[in-house]
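yo, Transmembrane protein 192 is done. seq:
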Amino acid sequence: MACRMDSAGRRPVIHNSATEITQSIEDDPLVDGPLISPDALDAEIKSEFHKLPTSWVALLLLFIHVIFVCLSVVLAVYCSILEDVIHQCHRYLQDFHSQTVIIFAKVSLWLLFVAFERFVQYQHKRVRGRGYLHFYRSTRSMKRLPLLVHSAGNATVMLVLSTQLSLPSAGHMYTYLLLGVLGLELLFSIPCLLAYTVKVVNFNKEKPSPDVCQEERMHAYSGPGSIIDTETGFREGSNLDEVVEKQADLIEYLKQHNSLLSKRILSLTSQQIRD
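structure:
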């Protein structure tokens, strides 16, 4: 890099082999203004790993679900099936039937799963924005399954209640069907929530770098003749929609990262000119 004075003798002109940068100290507001702290930019570019705070919420929701099913079974047995103690339940339930109380509680539980799905979706979008595209796509279906299970359970409960209104003389069969639906929901929800929790806990424990950084590291440590499959292009047997979506996510992350790098370069250039 060489530096010389122009004909007016007022400003330096810096020549580089690749690019030529001409800055006026008197006219350029970037040079005259306060410099951006390199440490602050480096902190943004190399940000700390942020843990995903959804594992404990999933475990709490699973615990609430187990408690709900246990209480529903106890309520149905003592207030609907056992004839000897039904009159005692009427003192506490007043005019409500045990099935009505269970359904009200089930709707409340379903609303909790809706709130959980929205919270998880928001947190996973933030994870995608930080460059963890593979983790985002690998948990896309996993975080939706519990809500889908409960929505299907709600539809089944509505079918049972509709049948009960048409054929009310079936004894305790509808109570058993209702408890069976609740048991199936719990049976399917436990593996979904546990698998999601394990996935998030492992992600927080590993503290991986963004996908782009991992691919760069793989290229750096690979030999000159090795071929690394980054799965960013279309290949035979690939899903075109997934490839396009991954490229869109990758472009969005790189735009944010390049913006921070541009600010860092401008700050270093301004510092160099002043020095």
